[in-house]
Design brief:
By secondary structure, the chain is α+β, with helices and mostly antiparallel strands. It folds into two domains: 62 residues, no CATH class; 94 residues, no CATH class. Helices cover 24% and strands 25% of the residues. It contains five helices and ten strands, in the order E-E-E-E-E-H-E-E-H-E-E-E-H-H-H. The strands form four sheets. Strands 1-2-3 form a three-stranded antiparallel β-sheet, with no helix packed on it. Strands 8-9-10 form a three-stranded antiparallel β-sheet. Strands 4-5 form a two-stranded antiparallel sheet. Helix 3 crosses helix 4. The longest helix has 16 residues. The radius of gyration is 20 Å and the shape is elongated.
């Protein structure tokens, strides 16, 4: 017998699983049969106590019951909410792709990953990190320009797996400059359309 009790959204499409300790996760009601009779528990991925998952008594993650990922692949929570296990929030990915979709680090001061104020130049610097390589995306007069550059760099290197910031689309001069900077690292890109574009234009 499972230790999970359920409530449902008004339209009945979302099932909210309640663990005895108060943790609540959500899945599609249509997928409930996949976890029928299974007991689940909270589990923290690291010592910070910040990243929470739901696992069974053998350590199998809840999302692994819902999606059968091939060996060597991971399952990414698109919106970073590990309690949101609806199928629309889960996708199969490689470890590298999963690492692209990460929350803001605690030591970030600008509010945007990869953007910082460079005091010596009195400008904002944009960069991204790919496979331990830091790609410099340029210095910009405004914070918004640096964020736009970061978005372009993410699109080039990470495609759909990047986490984008809500700013206006980058102007042509930023877009072209960032694309040229990223071309040197095309072999590290996981964005197939960017790789194809660079190779065709070579």
């Amino acid at each position: 017998m499972s230790n999970v009790s359920f409530t449902f959204s008004d339209d009945g499409k979302i099932a909210y699983g309640h663990l005895p300790d108060g943790i609540v996760f959500q899945i599609d009601t249509s997928e409930m049969h996949k976890i029928e009779g299974v007991s689940f528990y909270r589990n923290y991925r690291d010592l910070t106590g910040k990243i929470l998952y739901v696992i069974d008594r053998h350590g199998k993650h809840l999302h692994r019951y819902l999606i059968d990922a091939p060996k060597g692949y991971e399952i990414d929570h698109i919106n970073l909410d590990t309690m949101d296990n609806r199928l629309c929030n889960l996708r199969i990915c490689t470890h590298q792709q999963n690492q692209c979709n990460q929350p803001l680090q605690r030591n970030n001061t600008s509010g945007v990953t990869g953007v910082r104020f460079h005091r010596a130049r009195n400008k904002f610097q944009a960069r991204i990190k790919v496979c331990q390589h830091s790609i410099h995306l340029g210095y910009y007069m405004t914070f918004e320009e640096a964020v736009q550059a970061r978005n372009v760099g993410m699109k080039c290197m990470f495609g759909e797996f990047g986490r984008y910031n809500d700013v206006a689309p980058a102007p042509k001069w930023i877009r072209e400059d960032v694309i040229n900077r990223c071309k040197r690292f095309v072999d590290l890109s996981i964005c197939e359309s960017f790789v194809s574009f660079v190779r065709k234009s070579a």
